[in-house]
Each structure stands twice: as C-alpha cells, then as structure tokens.
Design a protein that fits this description.
single chain; three-stranded mixed beta sheet; 10 helices; 6 strands; 12% strand
C-alpha cells in the first residue's frame, strides 16, 4: 500500500520532468524557478503556479525532514494528493479545444441577406457569425454590429431585411473581435486569450478553430464568451 507521501513525490517528480521538458534552455534550474519562468508563457503553468509553488515547499518538507529512509515526518492529506495527481495529468495531457468545442459553425457569405442571418438567430439562438466573400474571411458579425447598423439606419424610411446585404452591415461591427486558433490549442490557452483582450480594454467575441489556426481552412469549431465562462 503506497503512502500519501510516496504518491505525492511520484506525481511531483513527474511534474518536475514535464516542466524541465518545457524549458528551452537552463534545464538545470530548480522546480520553483522553472514555475516562475514558465508561467509567463505557458497557460497551464500560469493557471496552477500557486499550487505548484506550494507543492515545492511541501516536497522539501517531506524529503528533508524524513526521520528515516522509509518514513516521512508528515503525510500529505488525501485532497493534496488528489490535486497534485490531477495537475500532473493535466500538464502531461492538456485538454484541447477540439474535441470539446467541435461543433458546426453557422457562417454566411457577404452577399447573403440580413434576413437570412436574422432567421438563423431566431431558429438557432446563435448571435455570432463568420462572414466570407467566397472563401475569404471578411469578419465576424455579431448582435452588436446588427444593432449598430439598425441604429444608424433607423431614420432611413421603410426597408426590407431581404434587401440588406451582410457586406453592408459588417462594417458596423468591431474589426478585431475574433481570433483564429488551431485544433491543438489547450482550453486554458484559449481562456488566456480572452483575458489578454480584456486586460487591454477590448472585447474578444469569439475564437474560430481551424486545423492549423489559419483563416483559409475549414472551420472546426467556435468558442464564444459564454463558452469561456463555463470552463472551470
């Protein structure tokens, strides 16, 4: 029967090996130093940095304060062991945006009518749509862009939504409200992108997922603000 200290040290050593593999150079650094460096560039390390630094202190207490070779002076609580094993597994096999956000993405051509998009909003409940000119991505049209267009054209007399093309509505939306990411992006890297936008006082409406993260590829999924809020 393995003791909690043995389970803890096993998971800790695996995390240390994982961190060392992430280091481009200076692979001889200590555990805590690696955490402090990597949290600036790795979303998972950043997410768990405080836990990892606490694990380092506990590891030192266990290793350096053993009363004998086979007996640790303190045994970690079950919850600590569960946490470090969960983090170790996440670092070794980070959850990717695909398949979690693998879904059909409703998109439109810029020559489609506003009536078509409004019908989809009513039927599907979606409010963010990629717009293309043939195969070229033109931008993301959201409910804000539609509202802005309506406000601008409120005094223009009667008109039919069937006669309004999406290419005429798209300029009323934000220009940099969307990013493309690859299918191999971790879900926590996706969260960080939203946080980075917010820190600059900007709003990221959606992340569009393609195989390599380029605009020319087929859409594999979409992550919206509401999706991000559901990520634990």
């Amino acid at each position: 029967m393995f003791k909690n200290s043995e389970k803890f040290l096993t998971a800790f050593n695996r995390i240390e090996k994982e961190l060392r593999s992430m280091m481009i150079n200076k692979k001889d650094l200590g555990f805590s130093k690696m955490v402090k460096i990597l949290r600036n560039s790795n979303s998972l390390v950043k997410r768990y940095s405080e836990d990892l630094l606490e694990f380092a202190e506990l590891r030192n207490a266990i290793v350096h304060n053993k009363v004998e070779l086979t007996h640790a002076i303190a045994e970690p609580h079950d919850s600590i062991v569960d946490k470090i094993e969960t983090i170790q597994e996440e670092l070794a096999h980070p959850k990717k945006v695909i398949p979690l956000f693998n879904k059909k993405v409703h998109y439109f051509d810029e020559q489609d009518s506003l009536a078509d998009m409004l019908h989809t909003i009513h039927e599907k409940g979606h409010t963010k749509f990629p717009v293309y000119a043939n195969q070229t991505f033109m931008g993301l049209l959201t409910q804000k862009g539609i509202t802005n267009w309506l406000a601008e054209n409120n005094g223009e007399g009667s008109f039919s939504f069937n006669d309004i093309l999406l290419k005429d509505v798209l300029p009323f939306d934000e220009k940099d409200n969307v990013l493309f990411i690859s299918t191999s992006t971790s879900i926590y890297a996706a969260v960080e992108l939203y946080k980075e936008y917010a820190s600059k006082g900007k709003r990221l409406e959606a992340l569009l997922i393609t195989r390599n993260g380029t605009q020319e590829e087929k859409l594999a999924g979409i992550i919206t603000t509401s999706d991000i809020l559901e990520i634990p």
